[in-house]
Each structure stands twice: as structure tokens, then as C-alpha cells.
Queue: 2 jobs
Job 1
Amino acid sequence: MIEVTLLGTGSPMPDPNRAGPSTLVRAGEQIFLVDCGRGVQQRMAAVGCAANTLTALLLTHLHSDHIADLGDLIITRWISTFTPDPSPLPIIGPPGTAEVVEATLKAFGPDIGYRLAHHSDLTAPPPVQVFEYTGGVVWDHDGTLITAGPTDHRPVTPTIGFRIEYDDASVVLAGDTVPCTGLDELACGAGALVHTVIREDLVESMPLQRIRDICGYHSSVEQAAQTAARTGVGILILTHYVPALIPGQEEDWRSRAAAHFGRQIELGNDLHRVDVHPGVGTAR
Ligand SMILES: [Zn+2]
Ligand SMILES: [Zn+2]
């Protein structure tokens, strides 16, 4: 079984009830954080997950809402790991990730210097190891296989989605994307598909062109459901609601997806958890 927890279901717009985009995936003893939006560690704390227990950080792309708390995560993991010679945090993302991580460490340079000077048992800066991919196998350890595939979030490029497989269960994390063959191939027959969505009907009616622009590089609820149906996944998990999903309107969102996808549809608030069992979805 793979556990999927929607840590943050928000978007770039600050919301008192929704943290920024981030999803926690537990596969046996391994814990993967996919994207690290605003407030991610508060949500991690709510489910008993600390930065120093993460197996790896996976980034779908480098938009601010998906990496807002990268620095906080790296620093917190560093100062809360008490074993000597801590292993580096693997950070797996698209090309450009190394530059962003390097710049983040530079931005926190004064902090890192203060802590190195103050704590005698901290002898090196935060250990991280960045891996950049546009596709293929990105992780193969302890029974968990993770593959990446290209998505289409242009002009943001390159962007990737991830397929995590463990114990005959599988989950695909699409990130931000319009429907595309790269995601179709990655999601084919998966147990669950976590897909970011916007309500195109609502966004298109807003009077600001800058807001309407977002329709061009995201999937609507209907398009995400069509991708789920086309690829034969078992469960569609919607997140990254734009505009924010207002309590009481869940069925409106769900019915728009259900018109195109006849299987299980999950959506909700931060910390919503979905267990994906082996055999959910069709065989790949
Ligand atoms: Zn984005
Ligand atoms: Zn986004």
C-alpha cells in the first residue's frame, strides 16, 4: 500500500486554510515529499512527519508556489538531524533544480554561518544532493521505484511528473500540466493520479487578464478527469484548487470530474489522506 496525504491543497494565492502545493507519499519505510509549498512543515508536523525523516524531496517544477519553503525545509532538516555525518537529502527535480538549490543555500548563507559558528557539533553546511531529470528512472531503492516523465506546463519548462511504485501499488503525481502524452504514458494504469486543477469556468470569468492567463497552462477539473479516464487509473485525487475550494462546494467540483471519470474521485482539505492498495487501477 502507498499512503498519499495532501499536505497543501492551495495555490499561489495565500489562503488561511490551505497550505501551498505539497503532497506526502509514504511507501513502506520511505517518505517522499512532492513539492514544498508555503507552510509545508506545519502540515508535515500535523501528520507526525519531521524534515529529518524525509527520504527524498521530489520537485515537479520550479514555480514559486511549489518551492516556496525549500529553504525552510533544508535548514530545518539540517539543524534537527543530530547524528554525526548526516546523509544528504536527495532533491530530485527538472533541470534548473541545482541552480535553485544552490541559490537557496546562498540566500541562507548568513544563517548557515551563524549556526556553524554557534554549534560545535555542526561542522558542515546542510548536506543536499541534487539530481536533475526530464524522464526515466529517478529512484530505485528498498522496493520503491520512481520514474519521471515530461509534462506540459509551458512556458514553464522543463516540468516533470512522477510515478511511485511500491508493493504492487502505484501513484502518479502530475504537478501542473495541460493534458499531454508524457503524462498519459506516465499515468497509464496507475493506482492513483494526483492532479492539480483549476476551475476554468470560474477563472475565465474573472476580470483580470493575468488571472485568466493561468488557464493556458493548467488542466481544468474536466481535463484532469479525462486524463484519468484515458489512462485507466483507479483513483483521481484533485489538489491545488484554483480558485480555492469553498467548503460545501465539494460536490460541484466532484460532479464535474465524475462526468468524465467513473471511478473513485478524492478531493478535500489539507491533510486529506488516500490509501492506494495494490491492484487499484489496471495493470500497466
Ligand atoms: Zn506551476
Ligand atoms: Zn502551481
Job 2
Amino acid sequence: MFGDVIHSFTTSYVGLWGELAVGDVDNDGHVDVVSPATSLGPNVNGIAVMRGDGTGRFSSYRWYRDTEYGVQAVFLADVDDDGTLDIVSRNSGYITAGIKRGAGDGTFAPMELFGIPGPAAITVGNVTGDDKPDLVVASRAEAVGGGRIFVLENVDGAFTAGQPFGDPQFWAQAVLADLDADGHDDVVGVDEDGQLIVSLMTCTARP
Ligand SMILES: [Ca+2]
Ligand SMILES: [Ca+2]
Ligand SMILES: [Ca+2]
């Protein structure tokens, strides 16, 4: 037996399309929801943040319109290791990876954009082995310059432009795990033919 829908939340003239994420973005102990959000009239893209009140309802809603590219998916991670959840977004177009740093009170800084061709998946992990979260993008082979793993290294909380690794693959999705226990997260993914592929990462942090 499953539950009925007992609450919905209407975002007036904004539609929530894409892959959403949940987490406590304002550190009040209640789960909040973050979603790609596009206006229903003129095509304005952005990200909506809905703060949960702990009852299944939402006490506030804010729409950030700081991307000219469509946001296809978001997830939450503390990318700068300052104790607050940040938003990582996978966007359409060429400027295709973005982060919005969270202040810890439910508000977010303007999006920082990174030009990675054709991202199929974006994830966060310790790829360079220095225990700082790096951004990792698996890109689609049909994009110009794509089909590679791009590592955006975390240097003192800022991220480098993506450096490509590995031979071109038809990445469709990817997650990180340290498969060979060498202290560097590796990329585990599936290609567009449905085959499991692995890229063992050996890159080291910049001195
Ligand atoms: Ca919360
Ligand atoms: Ca953070
Ligand atoms: Ca490894």
C-alpha cells in the first residue's frame, strides 16, 4: 500500500523540469528540494529552491534565473568543503557545468560556469587524492572535444578548467568510487550501448 499525494506545491508561472535533488540547504534540520526550473511563458531558465518545513510542506520558494542555458539536472554536494551544501548543475549548450555555492541559510551565490562539451553526467569526488572534492564530468562522444572524463580540480576551493582524461568513450552515465583502493576515486559508468566502462584515475593534485 502506498501513500496518497497529500501536499503539492505550485510555483506559479515556473515549471520544474529535469532531475531534482534533496538535502538540507539551510541547516534547519528539514529536507529541502532543489530543481531545474523554467518559466512557462518566455523561456527563462534557472533553478528553484524550496525550503521544507519538516511536515512535507514548503515554507518558501526562490527561483534563481542566473543561467542562460537550460538546467537539465541538479545535485547537492559540499563542493568547497566549507560545511554548506552547494548546487551542482548539468546544463544544455556548451557552457554545461555549473556550481552555485550555498551560504548555509538557503541562499546561493550566482552560478559559476565551466565549459565542458556535452556532459552526460557530473559528479563530485576525491579524484586527485588530496581529500578535497573535485568535480568530474563524463562527456558524450558526439560533442566536439567530448567523449572524455574531465576533471575540474579543487584548488583552495576554486575549480580549474576541466582537464580531459582517458580515451574517448560513449559515456551515458557515471559515478565515482575508488575501485582499486589507491586513494583516488575512479569513474564507473555505462556507455550508450549499455556496456559497463571504468576509467581508473591516477591524476595527482597540483603542487
Ligand atoms: Ca532545510
Ligand atoms: Ca559549500
Ligand atoms: Ca582508484
